[in-house]
Amino acid sequence: MEELVLLIKYFVLGLVQGITEPIPISSSGHIVIFRELFGIEAKGLSFEIFVNFASLLAVLVIYRKDIVRLVTNGLNFMVKKDMEAKKDFQFIIYLIIATIPVGVVGVLFGDAIGDLIGNNTMVVGITLLITAVALWVIRNLRGRKNDGDLTMKDAVLVGLSQMVALTPGISRSGATIVGSMLVGMKQETALRFSFLLYIPVSLGTGILEIPDIFRDPTMDTLLIPYIIAFITTFIATYFALKWFMNIMARGNLRYFSYYCVVAGILILLFM
């Protein structure tokens, strides 16, 4: 019976991760909350590595055509000097530039940030309220910049906004979408830039944290629950991101702002 309950808990955690990763309400914050509710102690980062990789796979599947186009055109520009491919090459450069801030801060201070506030529900409640304010600010923005209109300054500013999302409760997708729309990107461009930016960050983080998996003493006993969470996360992320694309197209971000206000207040009052 206890084993079944444990499997159900990790199924729910995978579902929470999968649903909240693509939408701007913070997957890390919700995982902290549900772990607290389920009484699951966070030992190491193995679980986060598993479910983040599952979300990454879902994003790769959805954006596979964009990825193939960018890689192909990027190579064509570098090798054949194909000027028609220049905009896609520049888009890749901007993604790399936007990755640098969070990469540097994550490597230098990631462990310290995690130890200080990683499992603090009070911090999650406060940062959800901050997320709500940010989403409210951009709720009516309608930018004009397409993929080919981006600048180095845009990439740096979005990269800095992503850096803020190292704090649990600050949504990574929310932070980058807010940053992208504040610099004038259209909703579709902001969404694409945000999730293509997620790929190198998630992949790099996963590679750096692989040793943690082998050092995790709980892997033998939790392997099956982790696999269940992985599969659940992949499926949930895929459908949640598809749904969020439709939400972005309609410009209904204010509903996520409402949710973050309610969730943040409830956390501060009762946890």
Automatic annotation (TrEMBL):
One of its GO terms (cellular component) is plasma membrane. It is a multi-pass membrane protein. GO terms for biological process: cell wall organization; peptidoglycan biosynthetic process; regulation of cell shape; response to antibiotic. The chain crosses the membrane at residues 44-63, 91-110, 116-138, 190-210, 222-241, 253-270. Keywords: Antibiotic resistance, Cell membrane, Cell shape, Cell wall biogenesis/degradation, Hydrolase, Membrane, Peptidoglycan synthesis, Transmembrane, Transmembrane helix. It comes from the Bacteria. It is found in: Cell membrane. One of its GO terms (molecular function) is undecaprenyl-diphosphatase activity. It catalyses: di-trans,octa-cis-undecaprenyl diphosphate + H2O = di-trans,octa-cis-undecaprenyl phosphate + phosphate + H(+). Its EC number is 3.6.1.27. Its main location: membrane. The keyword Disulfide bond does not apply. It is an enzyme of class 3 (hydrolase). Catalyzes the dephosphorylation of undecaprenyl diphosphate (UPP). Confers resistance to bacitracin. Bacitracin is thought to be involved in the inhibition of peptidoglycan synthesis by sequestering undecaprenyl diphosphate, thereby reducing the pool of lipid carrier available. Belongs to the UppP family. This is Undecaprenyl-diphosphatase. The lineage of its organism: Bacteria, Bacillati, Bacillota, Bacilli, Bacillales. The gene is uppP.
